[in-house]
């Protein structure tokens, strides 16, 4: 970070039950919420939109770096690499909430795939005087792909799942999740951009969407969550067959080829 002073921003939003119910329908869940119901873990992602006009967006559809809380690290490709959450008190559907975001750290390094820049944001979600959620969001910025570089070795997923759920994310799921989170990142809906500019074989499934599915699986099977941490390992593209897996308090997403896509811990 270039300054001793923390960089911070704040937003307020009403946790509209219609939006929460739209996400439930998108995820093929049968619950529906009225005002006052507890919001499921990570559903705060569909609120606190940063709605900017087109001239303030980068080539990838995200808000331009350097104009807000995220500095310009000089690298064009953005990935949500992982995060950690503490659930301190349930957020209430239909009530106003306040989100405070702090730029916690930035640093650069040289990896096998080229230059990398890491940005960590800390979000606090409040309702009234109650701190409900603390979230650390880890972002990675990278160079454009170079086909001449050696490709990294793909990590393999565990094979000892106690419970397992099939997942085949289609383009409709990706579109609806992008719409509900107001996520303009073109790798999730623009196949030509994803392939030709960022080097993916297809539309990329959102990392937070996979984390959301793992959190709901953990809550369904283990009860209310106090903490959750996740890390993206390799991308999943639309129409790929994958599995949501759990063994004890460890969760992961594996591809049909056995590769590890995401790991998580409750």
Please tell me about this protein's structure.
This protein is an alpha+beta fold and 266 residues long. It is built from 4 helices and 10 strands; from the N terminus they run βαβββββαααββββ. A 10-stranded antiparallel β-sheet has the order 1-3-4-5-2-7-10-9-8-6, with helices on one face. Helix 1 runs antiparallel to helix 2 (171-181). The radius of gyration is 18 Å and the shape is globular. The two termini are 30 Å apart. Mean pLDDT is 93; it is low at 1-5.
Outline: globular
Number of strands: 10
Radius of gyration: 18 Å
Give the amount of beta strand, in percent: 25-35%
What structural class do the secondary elements suggest? alpha+beta
- Fraction of helical residues: 10-25%
Which oligomeric form is depicted? single chain
Question: What is the topology?
Answer:
Blueprint: E1 7-14, H1 17-26, E2 77-87, E3 96-111, E4 114-127, E5 130-142, E6 163-167, H2 171-181, H3 191-196, H4 207-222, E7 227-232, E8 242-247, E9 250-255, E10 260-265
Antiparallel strand pairs: 1-3, 2-5, 2-7, 3-4, 4-5, 6-8, 7-10, 8-9, 9-10
Helix pairs in contact: 1-2
Notable traits:
single chain; 266 residues; alpha+beta; 10-stranded antiparallel β-sheet; 10 strands; 16% helix; disordered N terminus
Concise summary:
The chain is of the alpha+beta class and 266 residues long.
């Amino acid at each position: 970070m270039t300054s001793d002073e923390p960089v911070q921003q704040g937003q307020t939003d009403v946790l509209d039950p219609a939006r929460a119910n739209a996400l439930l329908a998108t995820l093929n869940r049968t619950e529906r919420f009225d005002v006052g119901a507890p919001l499921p873990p990570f559903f705060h992602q569909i609120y606190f939109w940063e709605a900017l006009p087109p001239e303030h967006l980068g080539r990838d559809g995200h808000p331009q770096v350097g104009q807000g809380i995220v500095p310009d690290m000089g690298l064009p490709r953005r990935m949500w690499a992982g995060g950690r959450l503490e659930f301190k008190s349930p957020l209430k559907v239909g009530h106003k909430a306040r989100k405070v975001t702090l730029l916690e750290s930035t640093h650069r390094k040289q990896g096998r795939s080229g230059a990398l820049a890491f940005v960590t944001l800390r979000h606090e979600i409040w309702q009234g005087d109650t701190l409900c959620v603390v979230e650390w969001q880890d972002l990675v910025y990278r160079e454009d792909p170079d086909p001449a570089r050696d490709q990294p070795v793909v990590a393999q997923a565990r094979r000892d799942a106690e419970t397992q759920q099939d997942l085949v994310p289609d383009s409709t799921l990706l579109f609806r999740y992008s719409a509900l989170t107001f996520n303009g990142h073109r790798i999730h809906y623009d196949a030509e951009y994803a392939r030709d500019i960022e080097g993916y074989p297809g539309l990329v499934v959102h990392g937070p969407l996979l984390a959301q599915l793992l959190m709901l699986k953990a809550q369904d099977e283990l009860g209310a969550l106090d903490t959750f941490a996740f890390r993206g390992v390799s991308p999943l593209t639309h129409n790929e067959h994958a599995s949501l897996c759990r063994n004890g308090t460890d969760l992961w997403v594996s591809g049909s080829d056995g590769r590890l896509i995401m790991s998580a811990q409750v």
